[in-house]
Design brief:
The chain is an all-alpha fold and about 500 residues long. It contains 22 helices and two strands. It is globular and about 75 Å long.
Length: about 500
């Protein structure tokens, strides 16, 4: 900018050091672990009954919907893979919506996600505490205070872990993903063995699978909602694209490995459940995997509740990791306070972003009734998915020369946009509720913050002093730029 070259020794020393930026520490296997760990939570162990129930206990229809839901999730993941390889930045949908559709839709997304995603983490932490404490209380309910204290301890343990080391967080994710997949393998292999050894008894349930009553269109749609919910989390990899090693190769490869693997496991586990239990027993069971284990492996049935806790812990770790990156990206764009986009000078991790998101999740745990309020924001997840896929379409035409190492077949994002808006509107039309109106008004309420603080850039000088003091306390500084190099 016309300035003379600065030869100050301190500046030279600073240039000689590695830049302060996110490291590319997440490899292919870490990425697979994060996607699988994010998708597979407690649902497949505890209550995979929604699809079967709304399919009117028709086994053929239920398995078809499980497959179709997985394929739709794969289509969405491939759309995100194109965006992740072309724009390998932190923040996932937020970064893509901002690039494709502009600042305001991106701010509405982060405004909504800042509350709904921590609430989801709080719910996971409470569910983990439920499964971790219940064995010590037998048939009696565990005290709420104990569950909340354990949930807070787990949240902050993972928050601190993610704030200290990406490598350690990735290692924990890999270990817990392997453990939950081992548990699913026990159920899947057990079902295959039973199909082979008890051919007449077991195969009888799969003969004429479509002979039962066929559900109508609305029931199939409801079953489809349940199936898609079970695959939720396929979008998680894009939040960490800035930290992926060789993102052009690893992001598509990771998606094409992880999502089909989950589809196969979900089908095998459901077939295993249907081999041992009747459809009516599955729908009426409180915890399907526990009932299955009591029938097949009664001597070691205790491993299933333990597996549920392990599965929830892994999903929570992944969710907290990605939420920290969302807050970091939002702050870098000026949509959240500056401090949140700073990195620790020793570990190059977004420690302030992790503290911010963990604190909000903790607030939801203390009066846990707040979590129930976020149930009506479910439609917002598919709204943002639709906007993200719409961003892909916009960028194809607006930036045709943008380097795209991987390109999805163009009709796929059009199908995902149509599917997403159907999933947004259908529950509101079929089951109208005032809470949906309140949720929509809350999203529009983001304009109250956006106009003065983002559009007109209103600032308060005293916040700069607070930021400076917190920066010194946390030993953080602004990132130098995109993650091209390393920070030791």
């Amino acid at each position: 900018m016309g300035k003379e070259e600065n030869n100050d020794p301190k500046d030279v020393q600073r240039k000689g050091k590695a830049k302060i930026q996110l490291k590319r520490n997440i490899g292919y296997f870490d990425g697979v672990s994060f996607i699988i760990g994010s998708i597979v939570g407690a649902g497949i162990f505890v209550s995979p009954t929604g699809v079967l129930k709304h399919s009117l206990l028709n086994v053929g229809v239920a398995l078809t919907i499980w497959t179709a839901s997985g394929l739709v999730s794969l289509m969405g993941a491939l759309c995100y893979a194109e965006l992740g390889t072309a724009l390998p930045f932190s923040g996932g949908e937020y970064s893509h919506i901002k690039r494709g559709l502009g600042s305001l839709p991106a701010f509405v997304f982060i405004w909504t996600a800042t509350f709904t995603k921590p609430a989801s983490n709080a719910a996971r932490a409470l569910l983990f505490a439920e499964y971790a404490t219940q064995p010590f209380y037998g048939i009696c309910p565990a005290p709420d205070v104990l569950k909340k204290c354990l949930a807070l301890a787990v949240l902050w343990s993972l928050g601190i872990l993610n704030g200290l080391s990406v490598k350690m967080s990735a290692w924990v994710q890999t270990v817990f993903t392997l453990l939950k997949m081992m548990a699913l393998s026990v159920i899947a292999v057990g079902g295959i063995v039973l199909l082979v050894t008890r051919q007449k008894e077991s195969l009888a349930r799969f003969e004429d699978m479509f002979s039962s009553e066929i559900p109508n269109a609305s029931q199939i749609a409801e079953a489809f909602f349940q199936g898609l919910y079970a695959y939720g989390g396929w979008w998680s990899l894009n939040y960490m694209a800035e930290e992926m090693k060789h993102p052009s190769r690893n992001i598509p490869l990771t998606v094409m490995t992880a999502v089909p693997a989950v589809i196969v496991f979900y089908l095998l586990v459901n077939i295993s459940y249907l081999t041992v239990l009747t459809p009516k027993e599955i729908v009426s069971s409180v915890a399907v995997a526990v009932t299955w284990a009591d029938r097949v492996i009664p001597s070691v049935a205790w491993i299933i509740p333990l597996s549920v806790a392990v599965s929830i812990f892994g999903a929570l770790n992944c969710s907290m990791f990605t939420l920290g990156r969302l807050s970091y990206a939002g702050s870098q764009s000026g949509h959240l306070p500056l401090l949140i986009s700073m990195l620790n000078v020793h570990s190059c991790t977004p420690a302030p972003a992790m503290i911010f998101s963990t604190t909000i999740a903790s607030i939801f745990i203390i009066p846990s009734d707040l979590i129930m309020l976020t149930n009506y924001f479910g439609f917002s997840a598919w709204l943002m998915t639709g906007l993200t896929c719409a961003s892909l379409i916009v960028l194809r035409y607006r930036e045709p020369h943008l380097h795209r190492p991987y390109k999805v077949f163009l009709p796929v994002p059009f199908m995902m946009v149509a599917m997403s808006f159907f999933l947004v509107l259908a529950p509101i039309v079929w089951s109208p509720n005032m809470q949906y109106v309140y949720a929509f008004l809350f999203m529009l309420g983001s304009l109250i913050i956006y106009l003065p603080f983002i559009h007109f850039k209103l600032r308060f000088p005293f916040l700069d002093k607070i930021t400076c003091h917190l920066q010194l306390l946390l030993e953080v500084c602004p990132a130098d730029g995109p993650a091209e190099g390393k920070c030791e």
